[in-house]
Amino acid sequence: MKNGALARRDVITYFTLAATTQMMRILVTGASSPLAVGVMRQLLLNSDLELWAGRHRKAIPLSDPRLHAIDLDLEKSDLTETLSRTPVDMVIHFAGVTHASDEQQYWKVNFEGTRRLAQAAHGCAASPVDWLAEISPQSS
């Protein structure tokens, strides 16, 4: 069994159980990353999910009528305005800087951008938003 395989299956099981009562809307940030694409591919196996894929610079290599791409820049976007148009039940947060020559960029995007995203998601939601985040260590 590969590292993380059990955890991924547990997450998919959670989505399967949580989504049985209504269409669940999930925002996936960093949606063009290989990890996010793999998670979204698995999530799309569940017909009761609608995915809003936040991308920054790259296209998302998936196609499905329930997959909606939105431009999302954690540093510059008006996240409250963006999320007010697409209210979600859950955020799966993969976006972040993993390689930068300016160390302040890590702070601006990975901390400040994530904080802004969480505030916007909770502020725009009709009910509490579930939150999952993937954390990458800073390279040294």
Features:
140 residues; 4 helices
Q: What do you see in this structure?
A:
It is a single chain. This protein has 140 residues and is an alpha/beta fold. It has one domain (5-133): 3-Layer(aba) Sandwich (Rossmann fold), CATH 3.40.50.720. It contains four helices and five strands. A five-stranded parallel β-sheet has the order 3-2-1-4-5, with helices on both faces. Helix 3 packs parallel to helix 4 (103-124). The longest helix is centred in the C-terminal third of the chain and has 22 residues, at 103-124. It is globular. Mean pLDDT is 77; it is low at 1-6.
Task: Provide the CATH top-level class.
Answer: Alpha Beta
How can the largest sheet be summarized? Answer: 5 strands, parallel
Separate helix tally: 4
At the fourth level of CATH, the homologous superfamily is NAD(P)-binding Rossmann-like Domain
As for the CATH topology, it is Rossmann fold
Record the strand order, biggest sheet.
3-2-1-4-5
Question: How far apart are the termini?
Answer: 30 Å
Structural class: alpha/beta
The percent range for strand residues is 15-25%
Mean pLDDT across all amino acids: 77
As residue ranges, the low-confidence spans are: 1-6
